[in-house]
Design a protein that fits this description.
The chain contains six helices and two strands; from the N terminus they run H-H-H-H-H-E-E-H. It is mainly alpha-helical. The chain has a single domain, classed as 434 Repressor (Amino-terminal Domain) (Orthogonal Bundle). The protein has a two-stranded antiparallel ribbon. It is globular, with a radius of gyration of 14 Å.
Length: about 100
């Protein structure tokens, strides 16, 4: 009997890619902005953006700092990133409109 895989945010990869693109950074540049250039290869960023890997909480926190959003915005699938990144003020995100899937809860 194996343990169930832990739940992961479905939209995290999409949001991480959105942040990098909004900042106009390459994957290598993103490593420098996150402060992890000495510990990660640039392919790690690609893995995160393609949902082939999941960043540590500390890396997610660095993404939140770079985008100037609360960490919750990155991990809550019901919150969208603000239209402007980095956000001019610390953003709490934008609540998504409920979809049919979310209405069943």
């Amino acid at each position: 009997m194996g343990a169930k895989p832990r739940q992961k945010p479905e939209r995290l990869a999409e949001k991480l890619l959105q942040i990098r693109n909004a900042l106009g950074l390459s994957q290598t540049d993103m490593l420098y902005r996150l402060g992890v250039e000495d510990t990660f290869k640039y392919t790690r960023i690609s893995d995160y953006e393609l949902s082939r890997g999941e960043p540590s909480l500390l890396v997610v926190l660095q993404y939140a700092h770079v985008a100037n959003v609360h960490m919750e915005v990155l991990v809550d699938d019901e919150l969208d990133l603000p239209a402007r990144l980095p956000s001019p003020t610390k953003s709490e995100g934008i609540r998504r409109k409920p979809t049919a899937r979310h209405k069943r809860r």
